[in-house]
Amino acid sequence: MFDILDMGASGLTAQRTRMDTIAGNIANINTVLDANGKANPYRRRFVVFSPGQAGDPSKPGVHVQSIQMDQTPFNRRYEPGNRYADKDGYVNYPNVDLSIEFVNALEASRAYEANVTMMDTAKSMFNSSLRLLV
Amino acid sequence: MFLDRLLNQGSSPVLDQWLRFTDARQRMLGEDIVNASTPNYVQKDLSLEQFQSLLAKKVAEQDEAGPGGVSFDDISMDIQHPRRGMLFHDGNNRSMDQLMSDQAKNALMHSLAVEMLREQYSMMEMALRERVS
Asked: pTM of this prediction?
């Protein structure tokens, strides 16, 4: 019965990773340069989950299979005065949509809570089973 | 032999199976909850109705065979894939409200079985002590 807690923990880890990714997207919503200072906007990331635990996919649970890059086009803004504008005066901004990120963050938060509740319920079931012994 | 008969009569084996079922179902529901955001994950569950009918059949067999005459350990169930939620764009058919309510009900059923089993054991203990206290 204790593997339910491991399963719940895998869910918590997965949802936390998802939340970290969302936080990274929001933090970089205006990042137009890469780490080398070149005009290369931040590309939105998203996590892809897969059933089974991280170390052993045969065990029930969930894990982050990959963190992928969103290949949708960058947001283009007309800023002719910007030094990073192209020849037409447009600057590429990250393809991050704040409303999508907030909805995903809300979903991740709710899923995290659901996992905690599930673990809490399983724990109370263990406790009540243990009461059979006393 | 005596102990075996004592523990396998009345509602004890039924409650024992009930605990096993709620444990297994909690595992299934837990797996569904942790995979609520997994693309193409199909929800799994154990049917309460199927379990109850299998259990009722065993109880009827036990009534005919007498105490300890029927083994309850061979109840096996198939994993079902209920279509309780709408199919999302990611191919997952989650229904969080249903899952949370199912697991709450399952936990209550577990507690009920534990309390009834505790009661049975305390009565057995009382009978063994030959004292009411």
From this structure: 0.84
